[in-house]
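Exercise: predict the fold of this chain.
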Amino acid sequence: MQGKIALITGATAGFGEACALTFAAAGYHLIITGRRKERLQELQQQLEKTYHIHVKPLAFDVRDRAAVNEALGSLDDSWRRVDVLVNNAGLALDLSPVDEGNPDDWDTMLDTNVKGLLYMSKAVIPWMKARKQGQIVNIGSTAAKTVYAKGNVYCASKAAVDALTQGMRIDLLPYNIKVTAVHPGAAETEFSLVRFKGDESKAKDVYKGFTPLSAKDVADVVFYCCSLPPHVCINDLVLTPTAQANAYYIHR
């Protein structure tokens, strides 16, 4: 199998699915992960048929360290030549004052957004170190930069992604591995529907009165960061709709 390989987590929807489409269109072979096995298989068939690439679907939850290690450990050497790891799997749950928050929601956000990213990175980094090349893109959020009311734990989880990205960048300098954080603002995906646990009315209200980012907008930026010359690394990038200044200020 010739050509570059990208591993994308949370590929069943939103930014992850859009990244899969964008990298596939550029000729990358893909390892796509997510919890929804049928959706992964549908995406595999679509990408292989459309772009004539190889796609390896791996269904597991990034929160489960044993499942991460088992799934990635099952890959043979031809798939371990990962050029790009996109740590995209993440979510927000609810909007509540910290004293009214649901600890189960906290666990889900922290285990997915922070620990899942760590588990995936720890599994893939040795492959990149051995080849002394590669790039890791961690999907953060404007919530990493500006804390907003009732966003407490979600904001903390994305601030952790920001800090981890900086730490990874330093630790991996001797191995010629790029590490990039991409922090999107308001983007109309399943994000708000998940946050409000299926309440479509609340989810739609988030994007009223302005034009939000699309998943493709974010995927295009991620791909750009991965398409630069070997000596160029974007360390930290924030993108928002034109109507949004940060996680708090949106002109509607």
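Check your answer against the key: Helices lie at 14-25, 37-51, 65-73, 103-131, 152-171, 191-195, 200-205, 215-226.
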